[in-house]
Amino acid sequence: MKKSILATAIVSSILSVSAAHAAPSFDGNFELNTDAISKAEGDSTYKQDGRLELNVTGRHTMGDNFFAGRGSLLIKTTGDAVVDDAYIQFGNSTWDLQAGRFEAVNLFPKGKDTLIEHVGAVDVYEANLVRGREGDEAGQFALHFNANDSVKFELATIYGDPNIDDDTSTVDNTTAISGVRPSVTFAAGDATITAGYESLKYDLTAGGEVKQSGYAVAANFDVAAANVNLAATFGKDHETDEKVTSIMANMTYGNFGLGVISSSVDDGANDPSLLTTYVAYTMPVLDIENATVTLAGSYSSAKDVGTANDKVTAARVRFNYGF
Fold first, then answer.
1. Where are the domains of the chain?
2. What is the DSSP string of 9-60?
3. Cβ neighbours of residue 166 under 8 Å, at least 6 residues apart?
């Protein structure tokens, strides 16, 4: 009898060590933006928008294996409510599979991008055609493989036709895997380099198809007390033969951030280009924990856009409270 009790105690102890789970965690934050935007022609425009973000995360483990889930709800000041993240993820320290609604690795990290207002007539390619969080008609799968502490792979896909413009009438939902986005990340100390390629292809109900592709290289590293991002991208629309090349550099130093984005379009006609700079600084509010105000601005100018509105100046005051 004593041996049986002892054996049961030992087995229970082993199970309690090898199988672990934590209660779901909840967190949230509120963000409110007050903006002023001025263009080269026309009146300045003023607007205010914001959202309450509520997050729930759960995770269970069994030895090196895990199963996790996350959901994020955004309640906007416009009265709308939308889902940001909603996914499951399972695997171990070597590999895992993620499925649902989420964003894949960032190939165009903009740093402290509180406000970036580009001249609207020039495209900026951010290598995010297949990054994720698309419309109602698409799902996502991403396979992650960690070769070692320094080399990590991701293969992200879009399952179904991405409803990019939130207009289901334009999309022919007959494509299974409509987007593929492999990437690899190399880490050495505090520096990382990420390279990726993406291909997007799906049919339209009125005939024709969307066929786009592109690639990007991004680097992140520290310079003294500042964190720096560099990225270069090249995208192509295979239906119109339009090509977009974008270059980005930014730095974050404490609560201060500064960045610049350059983009040029080869459309076989005007070949427009733009240069956008942006800046942001965050301060505490009344010395209250998790309450901040950020002052931000951006200036964008363009060439060969065929319109008088070739300059945009914008300013933003953002309040944020996390809880």
1. 22-322
2. HHHHHHHHHHEEEEEEEEEEEEEEEEEEEEESSS--EEEEEEEEEEEEEEEE
3. 135, 136
Which SS3 state, helix, strand or coil, does residue 168 take? helix
Q: State how far the Cα of 272 lies from the Cα of 48, in Å rounded to an integer.
A: 31
Phi-psi category of 129—alpha, beta or left, where left has phi over 0 and alpha has psi -120 to 50? alpha
22-322 CATH choice from 3.90.180.10, 1.10.10.10, 2.40.160.10, 1.10.260.40: 2.40.160.10
Task: Name the DSSP class of 4.
Answer: H
Which tens digit of pLDDT belongs to each residue from 153-199? Answer: 999 999 887 765 545 556 666 778 889 999 999 999 889 999 999 99
pTM given for the model: 0.87
Specify whether the backbone of 132 is left (phi greater than 0), alpha (psi in -120 to 50) or beta. left
Other Cβ atoms within 10 Å of 73 Cβ, number: 17
Q: What is the band of 1 on the pLDDT scale with cuts at 50, 70, 90?
A: very low
